[in-house]
Amino acid sequence: MAIELFVNGKKEEITSSPDTPLIYVLRGELGLRGPKFGCGLEQCGSCSVLANNSARRSCVKPVSDFEGQDITTVEGLPALWAKAKKVRHVDLHPIQQAWIEEQVPQCGYCQNGMMITAANLLASNPNPSVSEIMTAFSTSGPSPHLCRCGTYDAIIKAVQRAAQLMA
Amino acid sequence: MTIQEEAGTISRRGLLRAGGALVVMSAAVPVALRTSVAEAAATGMPFPTPVLTDLSTWLTVHTSGNVTWRTGHVELGQGNRTALAQMVAEELDVAFEKVTLVMGNTNVTPDQGVTAASSTIARAGVQARLIAAEARATLLSMASKRLRAPVTELSVKNGVVHHGRRKVSYGQLVHGKALTAVTPIVINGQGTTVGATPKPFSEYTLVGRSIPRVDVVDKVSQKAAFVHDITVPHMLHARVIHPRGIGSTVVSVGQLPAGSNAQVVQLGNLVAVVAKQEWDAVKAAANLPVTWSDWNGLPSTEDWPAAMRATPAKVVTHASQGDFDSAFASAASTLTATYQTPFENHGMIGPSCAVADVRPDGSVTVWSATQYPQGLRNGIAQMLNVSTEQVEVLWVDGAGSYGRLCSNYDDAASEAVFLSRELGKPVRVQWSRADEHIWEPHGPGTLHDMAAGFDESGNVTAWKHDAFMAPNNDSTMLGPILVGVQGSSTRTPVGSWTGPDLYQFPNLLELAHQMPEFGAATSPYPFGLRTTFLRSPGQHQITFAQEAFADEIAAATGQDPLQFRLQHLTDARAIAVLTAAAQAGKWEARPSPKRDASTSNGTVTGQGISFVLRDGTYAAAVVKLEVTPATGKVLLTEVTVAQDQGQIINPRAIEHQISSCVLQTASRVLHEEVKFDTANVTTVDWVSYPLLRMDETPTINTILVPNPQIAPSGVGEPAVNVMPSAISSAIFDATGVRLRTMPFTQEVVKAAMG
Ligand code: FES
Ligand code: FES
């Protein structure tokens, strides 16, 4: 039986084998680019997605673990915001807007995971302090979120800006 | 400006296959390239090389007034795409939004060398500026004929040429046709010469502004394709199973378990599994039994410094003045110390990845995040033994590579071409995290023997820096070597000293022992523990030893580290950045260590200062940090960097580069070390090779010292160099303990505190 997922608001019948880690399904079968392969070991955060509204790594756990869940990748963040605000369409989630205003990305490879974890944090803590932001990205998940390009300070500013935009 | 694909950026073979005969290329493609692909293929030249001296290679002015500008350099996440467009738009007198850049596509972009060493603005950008000025002069001469007015009476605004009330736009003048320079462009060993003179900086309206980066919106909205996102029809996913030891060769390759959907490919020592679904390839790679020969040609991590000293090396004198030996022998007092830097990772967050399509007629298309598309193109032509005109390399965004894909043009691409040729299908190779950690060409480990002599009053009379440097320019690509088509190397990589000396000491001697790679002598392959350029190669290590030792001298002679530096510097720009950093970083003028460094929360605090001149850019940093003696934890609290890079192209992009240097180098200094046993690297993931975490981020202050009359120099590397010694000196200031071996991990600091 095909595994059913709801990905960025759309129902998907998955044909990949059930032991396939979620990231290969999202990227390979569904053609999404947001979740990035960084380590395949839950050690870097670049593959993060929201699963039933909480940030999860997609690179190790098989797709069967996510059966029936709502999966949101960065591509789905604008729709998530539109739904929350009860409007038809927005181009960008305020987190993405804040990421642009703060010019966060250098190479940009890790930023998918960073924005997902920002969404996760702001959902439960709409006005986080700097140290709460640091904790969310450093010690709250299976591993710290890693960036090689040195964007941590820009991310901290962007999370605070996103909090303002979402208030 | 948006990042659009112009027709010429799509593989012409791809177009041919997709749409049948493609007879005439878009006007965006230079005249020389506007032949049918079929015609070109018939002459054996499907992918001719763009001609640098042809103005139409560089730009196309479209009827709409939009300008396509082509550059051989690529965006590595540092904002090159935006800064180059700013420089070009400025010189052409068109709006910034009108300029679209095509980067690193060997079919259409000129070869401007490798994107490395902060060279895009300083070299490729300055070249683009001259050629854009020539393009403007060419457009003005066309306008002069059209408007029947002398060039001297014309003015340009936003791409429209005015003469009194009459006007004509660039688009109307050119409407997409190729431009021929009024004065021929000359490019030779002396550089680039054009007839036109670029604008004086006083007339700049775009250069110097913080224009937002054009690639950021696409990266945030996931519209940007990384090389990892490239898929082409019929593509197979490959995983390469790399040798167990650095010099191991295949003894035997077993079979995949029954039911595997993957296929095994063995080409000499290149062992791979391929499958239609990526996960099938990943599983197969984990399950394929491969027996490798034993090879144990490396010293272990603990032994490498002694092994390095015992290895014969060529010794190069970097600088010599006066007579160090006799000055040192007759000194009233002396000071010696040895510094050590570890082997390091470039640490791309996305592992190596490339897609290659080698077709039956021998033509090749490669998608790569290489830092040098033209170099990779030549390399691939050589390894496949086809002409360069048979090969196209299409650069695509990648994970920040910091030199990893620089002289080492792309291992994954070099493996993918052989697999694609063998299988007759496009092949995507992606490395595992362990492959990337083990097999990337690392940053080199180095040793530095420092010695200084003083007279009775504590003046420095003698200075010596004797460096032992593992290579920082390995350029091997694994593919052809594993396959066995490339045997012994034509060149031996060496470690080189980088960086000038600004301190004035009467007797000075600087030596570089250029070490070979560990294991190279006993490996069947033409490499050992591969080491290559890593952000500010050579100078990062040299500056650590030089600047930290300067601090040791200041401490030994009871001087304020800032004053000590200022006394031995004569260069006004050097003095200016140091003074600016000290002021903004609230430098406390006093000798180190601090008398009472302890705080009420059980930590001790300290300050450190450092200075560098890197490729024309002056940078100085003040680091403030706290150390927790009980745990050994070092936490940077505030880092202030003052930098003079001559002309400022985009202030905000420069500030982000400085922050990037500060955080990346803090990571290198506090956490990073590649470890190995006698067979291979043993730091295989982010747990065994950790990076800085966000909760270690200091407050970062940046001061850009303006110097608009001086040509712009690089900003991607200078601030890297000032961090190690400033951190070492700040730890000394706080604790009285001088750390000379990087990294300063918690364990190291705790042990040193006794
Ligand atoms: S790729 Fe999933 S945590 Fe690194
Ligand atoms: S922006 Fe390059 S890894 Fe984070």
Automatic annotation (TrEMBL), chain A:
Taxonomic lineage? Bacteria, Bacillati, Actinomycetota, Actinomycetes, Micromonosporales
Q: Which UniProt keywords apply?
A: 2Fe-2S, Iron, Iron-sulfur, Metal-binding
Give the matching InterPro entries. 2Fe-2S-bd, 2Fe-2S-bd_dom_sf, 2Fe-2S_ferredoxin-like_sf, 2Fe-2S_ferredoxin-type, Beta-grasp_dom_sf, Diverse_Oxidoreductases
Q: Which organism is it from?
A: Rugosimonospora africana
> PANTHER family recorded for this chain?
BLR6046 PROTEIN, OXIDOREDUCTASE WITH IRON-SULFUR SUBUNIT
Q: Name one Pfam family in it.
A: Fer2
Q: Which domain of life does the protein's organism represent? A: Bacteria
Listed name of the protein? Oxidoreductase
Domain 2Fe-2S ferredoxin-type per the UniProt entry, residue ranges: 1-77
GO MF, one example: metal ion binding
